[in-house]
């Protein structure tokens, strides 16, 4: 059986969604007015309906993110918004809160990564209870993904590019421990990107003022084939807050790479149709990146964090060879240009400036403070590349075959696209046999081959017989059949099957702790009905996180600095992260190879 492979792109708004689809996305995920995990990326129902209409022409899908926790007084409003999104034409809801399972929604549900899809048992439950898809935790290794795939048949979605949360998704209360803002409520303040001191139990500073929890961005572009073979069906790009240049660049890159992998296999195919044409060469290093890495895909390892800065450093362009009154000279060839932004690490901090001129080997900077021989220079803004992406004409077209037929008083034109969807139109029009068959056929084909501003590209033309017909009549016939075909494509879009809860499914554990995020009565009823006997109030319902675990992470500071407890470390005793008056105790679960932060407020 052939499996569908989907490239899933972020959409901050309608324009970003159109860019993603035009560049080759098979689906986009987008936030509505409320209850999405990116508070700053919201859209009206009307705009989401426009996105769905645009996407469905290509067989692409639209997933709405309702992936925050709900309180009892929000249940009715959340259900109303879900129903409005369904009426707008979305294809699925991405949810964290199990309350949505109790709302009778006629739409498929996807278990958000915030539901903690980390074990075969958990994912198996989501499959059995009725979810269509599970979105895997970013920190899973290929071995762990394989174990989940072996135990389940549910659709699996995996992040392949973009920012990484240092905590397991949905189990992070770090932001909530510093303010009223909660990541589980869509308002994460990103305290993991700040500087901390690493201290011992005597309050001695071991590492001072470093971004100890800031991990580099994910880039699995070289591992797509392995992910397909592991059973991943949806390849997700992070970035609902990123700009349109990022979306165009990264989606175009992954479209190209996924297509290469799909053509190598006989058992997979792309989940939507159309061919995207762009006028730039995609390059992941030339839009926002904190430095590319594969995180823990090959297993737990060092070298995944960026202690010096949480900001985008971009692409490395060279090492400073020397400086003089004319500027900076690098140790390698480069294509730096006036207007580019560059940065470097000076005294442990990121320093940025821009290029005001390039003369031969000399690069003239707007400021030279901190520039020293031997330091690495990075380009975090490529002016010419950004302009090329922004100005690029991007078009996605669907191949179509045309069949022209004549009768005594009628002319009929049928269009059939690459998916087999057809449309036919007929006009009453007398025609005459062409005097010059060759010229007549050439004229007919030339007029029919024009697709104009439609989404179609004419592939083959079949003409039953060559007859003379005014070109204006034939042009009107062609335009009408393409309009009909576009409507037929939308009408043929596969409708979502509603969520049906299987009451026999048993949750894999019988006790839920505050970090398991039960914050309303519907979720509590859901878990109770599926075998859970003890349910703690969700941590987001509490006034404080003091004394509670606020982060559980597969990333480990000890491992990162070469002080793993399993490798005879020099550092003994408890360790703490300290920033101002905030203090977090680090707990290390060596059996699970995980790190936890306890709020020592």
Concise summary:
By secondary structure, the protein is an alpha/beta fold. Helices cover 23% and strands 29% of the residues. Strands 1-2-3-4-5-6-7-11 form an eight-stranded parallel beta barrel, surrounded by five helices.
Provide a descriptive summary of the structure in words:
This protein has an eight-stranded parallel beta barrel with strand order 1-2-3-4-5-6-7-11, surrounded by five helices. A six-stranded antiparallel β-sheet has the order 9-8-30-31-32-29. It is 23% helix and 29% strand. It has 601 residues and is α/β, with parallel strands linked by helices. The model has no long low-confidence stretch (mean pLDDT 95). Among the domains are: 3-164 and 216-282, Aldolase class I (TIM Barrel, Alpha-Beta Barrel); 313-391, Beta Barrel (Thrombin, subunit H), CATH 2.40.10; 398-491, Nucleotidyltransferase, domain 5, CATH 3.30.420. The chain is built from 13 helices and 32 strands. A hairpin with a 4-residue loop joins strand 31 (582-589) and strand 32 (594-599). The radius of gyration is 28 Å and the shape is globular.
Please give the share of residues in helix: 10-25%
Class by SSE composition: alpha/beta
* CATH level-four homologous superfamily name of the domain at 3-164 and 216-282: Aldolase class I
CATH architecture of the domain at 3-164 and 216-282: Alpha-Beta Barrel
Regions with little confidence, pLDDT below 50 for 5+ residues: none
How widely separated are the two ends?
55 Å
Q: How does the major sheet shape up?
A: 8 strands, parallel, barrel
- Widest β-sheet, arrangement of strands: 1-2-3-4-5-6-7-11
Q: Can you identify the CATH class of the domain at 3-164 and 216-282?
A: Alpha Beta
- Here the CATH topology of the domain at 3-164 and 216-282 equals TIM Barrel
Task: Describe the global form.
Answer: globular
Strand runs, count: 32
Instruction: Look at the structure and give the mean pLDDT.
Output: 95
> What's the helix count?
13
């Amino acid at each position: 059986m052939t499996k569908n492979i989907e490239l899933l792109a972020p959409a901050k708004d309608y324009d970003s969604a159109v860019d993603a689809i035009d560049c080759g996305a098979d689906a986009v995920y987008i936030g509505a007015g409320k209850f999405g995990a990116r508070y700053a990326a919201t859209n009206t129902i009307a705009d989401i309906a426009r996105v769905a209409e645009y996407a469905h022409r290509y067989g692409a899908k639209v997933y709405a993110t309702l992936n925050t926790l709900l309180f009892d007084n929000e249940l009715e409003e959340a259900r109303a918004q879900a129903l409005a999104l369904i009426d707008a034409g979305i294809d699925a809801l991405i949810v964290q809160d199990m309350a949505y399972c109790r709302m009778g929604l006629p739409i498929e549900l996807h278990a958000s990564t915030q539901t903690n899809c980390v074990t075969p048992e958990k994912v198996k439950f989501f499959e059995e209870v009725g979810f269509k898809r599970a979105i895997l935790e970013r920190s899973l290794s290929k071995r762990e993904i394989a174990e989940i795939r072996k135990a389940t048949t549910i659709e699996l979605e995996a992040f392949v590019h973009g920012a990484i949360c240092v905590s397991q998704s949905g189990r992070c209360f770090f932001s909530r421990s510093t303010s009223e803002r909660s990541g589980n409520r869509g308002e994460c303040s990103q305290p993991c990107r700040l500087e901390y001191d690493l201290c011992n139990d005597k309050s001695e500073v071991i590492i001072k003022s470093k971004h100890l929890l800031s991990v580099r961005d994910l880039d699995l572009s070289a591992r797509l084939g392995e992910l397909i073979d592991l059973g991943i069906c949806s390849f997700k790009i992070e970035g609902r807050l990123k700009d349109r240049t990022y979306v165009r660049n990264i989606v175009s890159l992954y479209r190209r790479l996924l297509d290469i992998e799909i053509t190598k296999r006989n058992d997979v195919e792309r989940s939507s149709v159309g061919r995207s044409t762009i006028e730039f060469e995609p390059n992941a290093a030339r839009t926002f990146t904190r430095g590319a890495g594969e995180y823990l895909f090959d297993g737990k390892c060092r070298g995944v964090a960026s202690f010096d800065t949480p900001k985008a450093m971009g692409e490395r362009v060279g090492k400073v060879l020397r400086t003089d009154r004319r500027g900076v000279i690098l140790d390698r060839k480069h294509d730096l240009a006036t207007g580019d932004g560059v940065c470097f690490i000076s005294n442990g901090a990121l320093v940025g400036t821009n290029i005001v001129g390039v003369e031969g080997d000399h690069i003239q900077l707007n400021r030279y403070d901190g520039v020293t021989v031997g330091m690495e220079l990075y380009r975090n803004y490529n002016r010419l590349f950004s302009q090329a992406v922004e100005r690029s004409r991007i078009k996605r077209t669907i191949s179509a075959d045309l069949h022209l037929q004549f009768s005594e008083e009628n002319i009929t034109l049928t269009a059939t696209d690459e998916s087999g969807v057809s449309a036919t139109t007929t006009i009453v029009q007398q025609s005459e046999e062409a005097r010059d068959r060759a010229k007549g056929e050439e004229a007919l084909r030339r007029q029919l081959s024009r697709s104009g501003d439609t989404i179609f590209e004419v592939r083959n033309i079949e003409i039953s017989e060559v007859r003379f017909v005014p070109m204006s009549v034939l042009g009107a016939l062609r335009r009408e059949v393409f309009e009909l075909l576009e409507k037929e494509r939308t009408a043929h879009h596969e409708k979502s099957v509603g969520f049906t809860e299987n009451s026999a499914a048993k949750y894999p554990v019988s006790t839920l702790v505050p970090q398991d995020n039960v914050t309303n009565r519907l979720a509590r009823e859901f878990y109770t009905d599926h075998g859970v006997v003890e349910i703690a109030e969700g941590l987001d319902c509490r006034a404080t996180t003091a004394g509670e675990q606020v982060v559980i992470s597969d990333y480990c500071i000890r491992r990162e600095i070469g002080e793993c407890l399993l490798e005879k470390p020099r550092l003994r005793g408890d360790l703490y992260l300290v920033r101002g008056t905030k203090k977090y105790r680090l707990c290390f679960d060596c059996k699970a190879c995980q790190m936890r932060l306890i709020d020592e407020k």
